[in-house]
């Protein structure tokens, strides 16, 4: 058992050491900073038809870094995760269409404002709602953490509407279009861009935005003063030489298809699949990589927990039961955030998104594996142990040579089934910035607003892979029982 535990720990340590290494290194003369950003907030932050991260924020950041003499490594993820990554010192700064507010100033230090925006509200194109008073008793959809959400929250009691929250913009728009909610609030440029891109919404106050505010680049309060000074320096330079205006006009004046691809390509499932085939393939590879590595390590960890669960030692059995209980009972998304954001904030250290993602899979899937492994060993007839002991085998020898081989034979279908479950569970890791298949779909939808078609493609890819794994499971089970 000690050797098995040592093997698992060594494997985990080696894996995390590999994943923890930075893929990019800065030159000795230019500091390199890790910057987080929202991945789904066009036209500020999104992915173009060539799968490159672009937008007002991204282009400004590149121009500012070049002007001020530093380099950046951008980590796109969900808005709240991007902000929390900076607050927990996982990243050096964040640029994500972030409105400067007094509440945020308590946690972050902000740059000079780089964009002034206002809040717009929009309804479905054919909606009969014309004024804020018409919202009384109805539901408004909001993206968490945005200036639009903050403004809507401030007036909801005045106008008597209810609020529902989502983590990405496209889901917000679809909720309004489908009639589950009647309106949404967001930055004016964001709503104007998505409508230009074909989303069936209508801005109700295009000539009179609410609560004009400033967007700023943010760092953790009291830290990275040099980065903040460099950002301000670069911002001043690009405003003076005209680069700033070129970037803003590039996104606010251009036709949406400049970044999304032609309307013809986005009008059919085949067109979307053909245009984005490299992105889908890359997302699928990442998903399979996460699944394979996760299931191998989770199986090792689960086997160890299962063996511990049938130990003669009461303490070891209790330890196994406790570990299985904790990690089976904790939602995977909560565990991922705890590992990626919570622990670094507590310990003042960093852990890469890959390491946090793999560890999440290992702990969660390993707990389920440990439970059925323990059950598999216990399902072997007790007479087998008695017969082995009567032949002079010790308890440990009987386990290794009699019980474990028979138990593993019974568990093969469960192992394959857990592989399928792990494949599906990798989609939750998109929340901490891992670009797997589900996150790939989210990025494509943000760009082209074709939610139904894109998610149909993603669903079919998952279904094909899971069908192949199911056939493999049935084949293995038949061979084992032959």
TrEMBL record:
The keyword Transmembrane applies. One of its GO terms (biological process) is amino acid transport. The chain crosses the membrane at residues 288-310, 322-343, 452-472. GO terms for molecular function: ligand-gated monoatomic ion channel activity. It is found in: Cell membrane. Residues 1-28 form the signal peptide. Keywords: Cell membrane, Membrane, Signal, Transmembrane, Transmembrane helix, Transport. This is Amino acid ABC transporter substrate-binding protein, PAAT family (TC 3.A.1.3.-)/amino acid ABC transporter membrane protein, PAAT family (TC 3.A.1.3.-). It holds the Pfam family SBP_bac_3. One of its GO terms (cellular component) is ATP-binding cassette (ABC) transporter complex. It is a multi-pass membrane protein. Belongs to the binding-protein-dependent transport system permease family. It comes from the Bacteria. InterPro entries: AA_ABC_transptr_permease_3TM, ArtM/GltK/GlnP/TcyL/YhdX-like, Iontro_rcpt_C, MetI-like, MetI-like_sf, Solute-binding_3/MltF_N. SUPFAM superfamilies: MetI-like, Periplasmic binding protein-like II. Residues 284-473 form the ABC transmembrane type-1 domain. PROSITE patterns: ABC_TM1.
